[in-house]
Amino acid sequence: MTYENIYLYCIIQEPSFRSFGSLGMTNRENEVHTLNYKDISCVISPASIAEIKATKKNMLSHQKVIEEVIKNYTALPVRFGTIASSAEEVRNLMMKRYHEFKNLLRAMDNKVEMGLKTFWIDLNHVFKEIAQSDRNLSQLINNLQKKKKVSLKERIYTGKEAKKALNRKREDETQKIILPLKSQSVDYVKNEIFGDNMVFNYAFLIDRRREPDFDDLVENLSEKYKNRYKFKYIGPSPPYNFVNLLIKWGSITEKRN
Fold it and tell me: Which phi and psi angles does 177 have, rounded to 5°?
């Protein structure tokens, strides 16, 4: 089969042709299938254009294909929007980087990613706790409340000190929750926090055989802290935070956070 352009999703251990159905990125009738080299394959689909826009719809389509693949395979995700000009270009890539892909597949074998975000339910109560326990911040707030007129500089300084105190409390409370989760994972990545009420945002690399145990651990933590935190648990997912192949034709980089 010959296509003008080819969209790449992931690399898997598969020596034979395998079809994943009509899930193509640019056309839902396009078949997603493997392109083989020795005992590894690149999961691809025909692409009618040479560039894919990073819209929510397209990114979800990319993710959906990889999630379908990992039901039966260990997958090395390829960065969204990666397009080759021909099947030969993809095969050359697999040939040149064969040993690298094999080593990565071995490292990620039978592993999945689980994401956990945790949020304070009552942020106002958290700030009250901080004000009660942090003497310096409490004094700053009291001084502002006593003044009839407060300068912008004073407000900014107090705000910065409150932010520092919140970050310290966030870190202290994170350690209490995160330690048992780390002990049950193969690896973990600390991701960016969004908003004051988010306590932490972690990705965990889990052995598939330990997934039920990890699920139970998260469920127990959620029950234990149900009055203080809201947990958002996502997975199993491809190991995006642990292997993300950024391909520049002629070279390939393994990106790890």
Answer: -85, -35
